[in-house]
């Protein structure tokens, strides 16, 4: 069977191999994970810590944990007493379990949305610095080809090719 994904990966690998000879002649090859560089920065860690300490975030997390515990108790009760519960009792307990699941989904989405907004704010704050820092490192180290360290693009890279920690280090010096 013809697999498009395998063909794309093979073509990407062939391009990378052919480019590696050119890149070695012109400069080094390196990879970077910009999101990891930013999320490992001191600024991001401080923002995440502040976010996690907010009363509404703590309350949402506590609510999620309580809902999870309640749901687990109900599921355990349903399993343990399934043989002796009437059809109505089972249906009522299953309805309560579904209600708890819905509440957990709502609280989880609320927390995920707040987390996404935080990540976007951090990216907006640090984005002006990241390009400049990457350009400096590329120039200083003679990098001829810089790839996004994405598993769909880069099939393998030794950590010696990864400039992400250097970018994070310099990002920490900016603020």
Average pLDDT works out at 83
Structural class category: mainly alpha
Tally of separate domains: 1
Alpha-carbon Rg, integer? 25 Å
What is the helical fraction, as a range of percent?
Answer: over 70%
Shape designation: elongated
Stretches where pLDDT is under 50 for at least 5 consecutive residues are: 1-25
- What topology, given as strand order, has the largest sheet? 1-2
Number of strands: 2
Tell me the span between the first and last alpha carbons. 53 Å
Question: What is the string of SSEs from the N terminus onward?
Answer: HEHHHHEH
Largest sheet: 2 strands, parallel
Number of helices: 6
Binned strand content? 5-15%
Characterize the structure shown:
The chain is mainly alpha-helical. The protein has one domain. The chain is 77% helix and 6% strand. It contains 6 helices and 2 strands. It has a two-stranded parallel sheet with strand order 1-2. α4 (55-81) crosses α5 (87-141) and α5 (87-141) packs across α6 (164-174). The protein is elongated, with a radius of gyration of 25 Å. It starts with a helix and ends with a helix. Residues 1-25 have low confidence and may be disordered.
